[in-house]
Design brief:
Blueprint (H helix, E strand, L loop, with lengths): L4 H10 L20 H11 L20 H14 L12 H4 L18 H10 L5 H4 L10 H11 L10 H7 L12 H10 L3 H13 L4 E5 L8 E2 L8 E6 L7 E6 L7 E6 L7 H9 L28 E6 L14 E9 L4 H10 L2 E5 L5 H8 L7 E6 L6 H15 L6 E3 L6 H15 L9 H10 L3 E2 L4 H14 L5 H8 L5 H13 L13 H16 L5 H10 L4 H19 L7 H11 L15 H20 L13 H10 L4 E5 L7 H15 L4 E9 L5 H9 L13 E8 L2 H7 L3 E7 L9 H18 L2 E6 L7 H13 L4 E7 L11 H15 L7 H13 L1 E4 L3 E2 L6 E2 L1 H20 L6 E2 H10 L1
Parallel strand pairs: 2-11, 5-7, 5-8, 8-9, 9-10, 13-15, 13-16, 16-17, 17-18
Antiparallel strand pairs: 1-2, 1-6, 3-4, 6-7, 12-14, 13-21, 14-15, 19-20
Helix pairs in contact: 2-13, 13-14, 17-21, 17-22, 19-20, 20-24, 25-26, 26-34, 27-33, 29-30, 31-32
C-alpha cells in the first residue's frame, strides 16, 4: 500500500470492459460543497484558494444572482400551466374528472397540455407515458441545429453598461413554447403542484409502470428540497424470499418498510458514461435492459433539465424465484442523483450515509473534486469510480486517486474504466458482480423510513412531517396496533356484525322476497317483523366499541386533509397486519405464476383481514338498528345518536374512498344505510345529481377491479390477499363543461367482489350470485361482464338477465375477455365472439323461464360489444411492467363506454331519487 500508483495505472491500462457511450446531457452550472471540505483541504495543503459555500443549502447562494435561479421554477410552472396550483394544490378527484379529452386519443399541442396528457396516460398505466406525451409538432432532430444556428448568427447587443445586469437577468434559457420539455422537469413540476394524495397516486402508478420513483424532490425557489416518504407509502411489492435455511416463499410489504441494501450512482463533473443507462442495464436481465431510469437515448431524453437537477430517484430489484431471471438473490434498492454531486452536496451526503456502496461516474478528478471527496473521510459506504479513458485527464486522475486510497479506503478493484471500444455487457456483468460481492454479510440494510430519518438529520424536509399527517397517524395507530388477531378483533370490537346481523339479514331477505323467488316464507310476516325488531334491539344495546368510536372521531375531523390522512393511515396499518401470513411453498408459487400472471383479482388464500370497510360497516349497522327502532316507535327521534353517520360516509365517498353497497359476508344490502347515504349525496350535489351507473360483474380472477381502476383511476381493492366480497361503489366526477354534452354529472362505478364462500350447496350459491347480479344489473346503465377466455359466461348473469326482463330494465352489456397471459396487440377478435354466443345459448336452455326472445335480446348486444383485453403484465412479476397493449385496450374501452353514454344511453340516466327507488324495489 506504500506505492499504490502503479497498481491503479496498471488497471487503467489493462482493463477492457466497455460499452458505447454518448456524451453527457450537460454540465451543471453552479458548484457548491460543504465548507468542511475546503477547511480540511486548506489545513492539509495550505491552499489559499477560497470557495463560498453559503449557509448549507444545496444550490449556489450567490447574492448577486438570486432572481434568475428562483424564477426558473416559476417560469417552468407558467410554461406548463401549473402556476395556479402553487397555493391550492391539484387534488386527486380533480385530476380524475371526465372531460372532453377523455373521449379522444389526443396528443399535446402546447406545453400546457403536457401535465394532463401525462396524468391521463399514467392513470391508464401506459408505460409510454414519459415519452409519448412529449411529442410536439416540430421534428426533434431539427431543433438543436436551429437553436445553435440562432445563437451563432445573432449578435446580442447588451446596451449601456449600467443596463447589463438587467439584460442578463431577463435572459432565460427555458425552452421555447414549441421546444420539448424534459420529462423529469415535467414530473418535478407536476409533483410540486400536487397535494400529498395525488403525489401518492402518481408514484403508485409509476411503480406499476416500473418507472424509477422520485425520492428527493428539488425546489430551486425555496431550496427546501423534500424527501417523499408519504408519497411512497402506497407502493407495495411482492417478491420471492429464500432464507438461509428452510423453504422459500412469497413476501409482501410496503417499499418504505422493507430493509434492504442500497446502492447509489452519482456523477461528478462531466462523465462520458450515462448513469441511467448503466443502472437500467444493472437492473435488467437479458438483452433488453429495463428503462426504469429515464436516459438521454430515449425520446427527448437529451432535452436540457431546467428544474430537475438535484432530483434523487429510487428503483428496486425484486427476485421472482427463477434462478435464470434473478440478477440478485435478494431485494436491492438503487439510487440515482440527477446533476453533479458538487452542486447537490446535501443529496450526495444523504446517499453516502444510507448506501452500502456509491458508484461515482466521472471523466476528471481535479483538485476541487478531491477536496469534496476528502470531506467524506470516515464514511461507512464503499466508493467505486467509473472512469472514461478518452475524455479524462489520465495522469491527474491517477494522482488524485492515489491520494484518495487512504481517505476512502479504496483499492484497485474500486476503480473501473468503461472503454467505448469494448463490450458493454461485460462491464455491466462486472458491476453486477461488485454489487453481489457487497451484498455479502455484513452489509448494511436500510428502509426508506431509515433514509427519511437521515434526511431529517441533514436538514431536508420530509413530506410526512406535517401536523395534519402526524395527528392522523397517531389516531390511526391507536386503532390498528390493537388489530393483531383479525378474527378476535371482529368478535370483540365489531360486535354489531356478528350473529345478530346475520340473523337480521336473513329475516329481511324473507320479508323482501322478490316476485320471482316463488311463494312467501312459511312464517307469517308479523312474526318475521317481531323477530327483526328483537334482533335490532340486541344490536342497539351494544354501544360502539372504543376502536369504532376512535374511527368515527377520525372521519369526523373538521379538516378534510386530516380526514384523508387518517383514512390512508388506517388502510396502510390494516394492510400491514394483513401481510403477516403464511406463504405458499415453491411448487404452489410456480403453479400460481403460471395461472395468475397478471390476475390481480384472484381468490383469497386465507380468512378476510380487517379493513376500513369493516369500520364503515359497523357505522352502518349502528344507523340501521337505530333507524329501525325509530320507525317502529321504540326510540324517540330526538334521542338518535347516529343520524349523522351517512353524512360522514358521504365525505369518504367524495374523497375517493370505496364504500360498501352489498355486505359480502351475508350478501345483504343495508337498505336504510344506503338510502340515507344517497339522500345525503342528493343534498350535497343539488343540481348536479344526474347519474350513470356502471357495474362490473364476472368470475373471480378475471381482473375486473384492475380494469375499473385503470379506466377511471379508482381504488378498488385488488390482489389475492385483500379482495373484499360483496359490492363496492365509487363516484367519478364529470367536468362541468362536459356534463351537458355527456348527459350526466357523475358516474357511479360499482365493483362486485367474490361472493360468500360458505354456501352449503351449489344451488344456494347460484341463488346468492344471481341475487347480487340482479341487483347490480338492475341499478346499472352499463354492465361490464369480465370473462376469461377459458370460462363460460356465469350462469348468474344469465339468470339475472331473465329476471330483469320482467321489470323492463335491461342495461347495455359490454363483454370483456381478459387474456391474463397474452400480451399481444389489443383489439376484438372475431373468433372469440362465436364461442361467447354459443355459451350464452347453451347456458340459458336449462332455465325453465328461458325464451327465444330473451336469448335474442341478450345476444344482440354481445355481437356489438365484445372486447379483447391483452394480458396485464409485460414479462413476469415482480419486475414486469404493465403491457402497452393492456393500457391501450382499456383506454379504447373507456372511450367506447363514454361515447355510448353520450350518444345512446343518456335517456336511461338516473337522478339520485330514481336510484333510491330502484334500490328499494330490487
Amino acid at each position: 500500500m506504500a506505492s499504490p500508483g502503479p497498481e491503479v495505472e496498471l488497471l487503467v491500462r489493462g482493463h477492457s470492459d466497455l460499452g458505447e457511450v454518448a456524451p453527457e446531457i450537460k454540465a451543471s452550472g453552479g458548484r457548491t460543497a460543504l465548507a468542511i471540505a475546503d477547511l480540511e483541504w486548506r489545513e492539509m495543503e495550505g491552499d489559499d484558494c477560497e470557495f463560498h459555500y453559503g449557509d448549507g443549502s444545496n444550490e449556489a447562494q450567490d447574492n448577486d444572482f438570486p432572481a434568475v435561479e428562483r424564477s426558473r421554477l416559476q417560469e417552468m410552472l407558467s410554461l406548463l400551466g401549473l402556476e395556479t396550483y402553487q397555493v391550492q394544490k391539484l387534488s386527486l378527484p380533480e385530476s380524475l374528472q371526465i372531460s372532453f379529452d377523455s373521449l379522444k386519443n389526443w396528443a399535446p399541442q402546447v406545453p400546457k397540455d403536457l401535465p394532463w396528457n401525462f396524468l391521463r396516460k399514467l392513470q391508464a398505466l401506459n408505460a409510454e407515458a414519459r415519452s409519448t406525451t412529449m411529442v410536439l409538432d416540430t421534428p426533434l432532430d431539427a431543433r438543436p441545429a436551429e437553436k445553435e444556428s440562432r445563437l451563432e448568427e445573432e449578435a446580442v447587443d447588451w446596451g449601456p453598461a449600467e443596463d447589463l445586469a438587467a439584460d442578463i437577468y431577463s435572459f432565460s434559457e427555458l425552452p421555447a413554447p414549441e421546444a420539448p420539455v424534459n420529462p423529469l422537469d415535467l414530473l418535478c413540476a407536476l409533483l410540486l403542484s400536487s397535494d400529498g394524495f395525488l403525489q401518492q397516486e402518481i408514484l403508485l402508478r409509476m411503480a406499476l409502470c416500473q418507472f424509477a420513483l422520485p425520492l428527493v424532490l428539488p425546489d430551486s425557489d425555496s431550496h427546501q428540497h423534500t424527501f417523499l416518504l408519504w408519497a411512497l407509502r402506497g407502493v407495495v411489492r411482492t417478491w420471492w424470499t429464500q432464507p438461509p435455511r428452510g423453504a422459500g416463499g412469497l413476501q409482501e410489504d410496503g417499499v418504505v418498510l422493507s430493509r434492504m441494501p442500497a446502492f447509489a450512482f452519482v456523477r461528478m463533473e462531466v462523465s462520458s458514461n450515462s448513469k441511467s443507462q448503466l443502472l437500467n442495464a444493472v437492473l435488467g436481465a437479458g438483452p433488453r435492459p429495463r428503462d426504469c431510469f429515464w436516459h438521454r437515448d430515449l425520446t427527448l431524453g437529451a432535452g436540457p433539465r431546467e428544474i430537475a437537477d438535484g432530483l434523487v430517484e429510487i428503483s428496486w430489484f425484486f427476485p421472482s424465484g427463477g434462478e435464470d431471471a434473478d440478477v440478485f438473490a435478494e431485494p436491492v434498492a438503487f439510487l440515482n442523483l440527477r446533476g453533479d454531486l458538487g452542486s447537490h452536496w446535501l443529496q450526495f451526503k444523504l446517499l453516502a450515509e444510507v448506501s452500502a456502496a456509491v458508484f461515482i461516474l466521472t471523466d476528471n478528478i481535479s483538485r476541487k473534486e478531491y477536496k469534496l471527496l476528502y470531506s467524506m473521510k470516515g464514511s461507512a459506504a464503499k466508493f467505486y469510480f467509473v472512469l472514461s479513458p478518452y475524455r479524462g485527464k489520465r495522469n491527474s486522475n491517477l494522482r488524485f486517486l492515489n491520494k484518495l486510497i487512504p481517505v476512502l479506503k479504496i483499492d484497485c478493484s474500486h476503480v473501473l474504466v468503461k472503454v467505448s471500444s469494448t463490450d458493454g455487457e461485460g462491464f455491466v456483468r462486472r458491476v453486477q458482480a461488485i454489487v453481489r460481492d457487497v451484498l455479502r454479510p455484513p452489509c448494511r440494510r436500510v428502509s426508506v423510513e431509515d433514509m427519511a430519518s437521515a434526511a431529517r438529520r441533514l436538514g431536508l424536509k420530509v413530506d410526512e412531517d406535517c401536523g395534519e399527517c402526524q395527528k392522523a397517524k397517531d389516531r390511526a395507530e391507536r386503532i390498528t396496533r390493537r388489530v393483531k388477531d383479525p378474527e378476535g378483533y371482529r368478535r370483540d370490537e365489531l360486535r354489531l356484525q356478528g350473529e345478530p346481523w346475520r340473523k337480521a339479514a336473513q329475516v329481511e331477505k324473507e320479508l323482501g322476497r322478490p316476485p320471482w323467488a316463488g311463494d312467501p316464507a312459511e312464517r307469517p310476516r308479523a312474526e318475521l317483523r317481531a323477530r327483526l325488531l328483537e334482533l335490532r334491539l340486541q344490536q342497539h344495546r351494544h354501544p360502539p366499541a372504543a376502536g369504532v368510536q376512535e374511527f368515527v372521531a377520525g372521519v369526523s375531523s373538521a379538516s378534510p386533509g386530516e380526514r384523508q390522512y387518517f383514512l390512508r393511515w388506517m388502510e396502510l396499518g390494516l394492510a400491514r397486519v394483513a401481510q403477516r401470513r403464511p406463504r405458499p411453498p415453491p411448487e404452489a408459487l410456480l403453479s400460481l405464476r403460471a395461472k395468475r400472471c397478471g390476475a390481480p383479482d384472484g381468490p383469497p388464500e386465507r380468512p378476510d383481514p380487517v379493513g376500513v370497510e369493516h369500520f364503515v360497516r359497523e357505522m352502518a349497522q349502528c344507523f340501521e338498528a337505530e333507524s329501525h327502532l325509530v320507525e317502529a316507535g321504540r326510540l324517540p327521534a330526538a334521542q338518535r345518536r347516529f343520524a349523522h353517520f351517512p353524512g360522514l360516509a358521504l365525505e369518504l365517498l367524495l374523497q375517493g374512498q370505496p364504500l360498501e353497497l352489498v355486505d359480502g359476508s351475508v350478501l345483504s344490502v343495508p337498505l336504510r344505510w344506503v338510502t340515507g347515504l344517497l339522500k345525503e349525496l342528493h343534498l350535497r350535489l343539488e343540481r348536479r345529481a344526474r347519474l350513470v351507473v356502471l357495474a362490473a360483474l364476472g368470475a373471480p380472477a378475471t381482473g375486473k377491479s384492475t380494469l375499473l381502476n385503470t379506466m377511471f383511476g379508482l381504488r378498488f381493492a385488488t390482489g389475492r390477499s385483500c379482495r373484499p366480497r360483496g359490492a363496492f361503489m365509487q363516484l367519478v366526477g364529470v367536468a362541468e363543461g362536459f356534463s351537458q354534452d355527456l348527459g350526466c354529472d357523475h358516474i357511479l362505478v360499482i365493483d362486485s367482489g367474490g361472493l360468500i364462500g360458505a354456501a352449503p350447496t351449489a344451488g344456494e350459491r347460484l341463488e346468492l350470485e344471481t341475487s347480487l347480479a340482479t341487483l347490480l344489473m338492475g341499478l346499472s346503465t352499463v354492465t361490464v361482464v369480465s370473462l376469461a377466455e377459458a370460462r363460460d359466461v356465469p350462469l348468474a348473469v344469465l339468470h339475472a338477465f331473465l329476471r330483469l326482463e320482467e321489470t323492463g330494465h335491461l342495461p347495455s352489456f359490454q363483454f370483456v375477455f381478459q387474456n391474463l397471459q397474452d400480451t399481444l396487440a389489443p383489439g376484438p377478435r372475431p373468433r372469440d365472439r362465436r364461442p361467447l354466443l354459443e355459451q350464452m345459448g347453451g347456458a340459458e336452455r336449462p332455465g325453465a323461464s328461458a325464451r327465444t326472445s330473451a336469448h335474442r335480446a341478450f345476444c344482440d348486444p354481445a355481437r356489438q360489444h365484445v372486447w379483447h383485453i391483452p394480458g396485464l403484465w409485460q414479462g413476469a412479476p415482480p419486475m414486469a411492467s404493465v403491457s402497452r397493449g393492456y393500457s391501450e385496450a382499456v383506454l379504447e374501452l373507456k372511450r367506447c363506454l363514454l361515447e355510448n353514454i353520450r350518444n345512446g344511453l343518456s335517456n336511461q340516466n338516473k337522478n339520485i331519487q330514481q336510484l333510491i327507488e330502484v334500490v328499494r324495489r330490487l
